[in-house]
């Protein structure tokens, strides 16, 4: 699997970078977009044609995770059929159905089709098996554990979440934990996002190989955020900060 950061800020875009969006590519060439925050479409263009996306999966329906869904669909709707092999494929968009209004908006005639992921039994999506856990957040958000069937590689993406114990088991032995870290260590047990130290502690307890901090705060020194998380995670975890177009090849 290859993971590429497209948007890394929490809340709103700034300083020439957008909000949460990641491209996850399987070895077999399946292109999955994890959340679709602001600027996702133009950032995606640096990696591939947005018409080459095979599916989108959403953690929740806050604007900083879905802001570019409309633009992505316009792109595919208006792209000339036959150009660069574009066949007008409907885009599957996976989300939870616990907000009926937001879920209904995922379907757009001839352009995209909303699919509810199975939060109880997991969902097969292309080359991936994905399981889910509801997190601590003001609206319903699902963290996802994405396992590539062929290689057994595992990426755990929190979406947005405050601290809760079960996240440690959910992230157990993952190759990568991509974690929402919107707070420095002076905050803890917040109802919406993790702190640097909390993310580090979860990564350590779960025994993950790599921790990537995302959903970054617009204020404060990000080097300090990284240092705090790194100290909490310990030496056994490789701790890294997301910046746009940074890529991680899972080994
Ligand atoms: Zn968010
Ligand atoms: Zn949120």
TrEMBL record:
Keywords from UniProt, A to Z, are: Hydrolase, Zinc
Q: Name one Pfam family in it.
A: Lactamase_B_2
Indicate yes or no for the key word Amino-acid biosynthesis: no
Q: Which InterPro entries match?
A: Metallo-B-lactamas (IPR001279), RibonucZ/Hydroxyglut_hydro (IPR036866)
Q: Name one GO molecular function term.
A: 3'-tRNA processing endoribonuclease activity
Gene3D superfamilies in the record: Ribonuclease Z/Hydroxyacylglutathione hydrolase-like
Q: Where is the Metallo-beta-lactamase domain?
A: 18-215
PANTHER family from the entry?
Answer: METALLO-HYDROLASE YHFI-RELATED (PTHR46018:SF4), ZINC PHOSPHODIESTERASE ELAC PROTEIN 1 (PTHR46018)
What is the name attached to this protein's record?
A: MBL fold metallo-hydrolase
Organism encoding this protein: Lactococcus allomyrinae
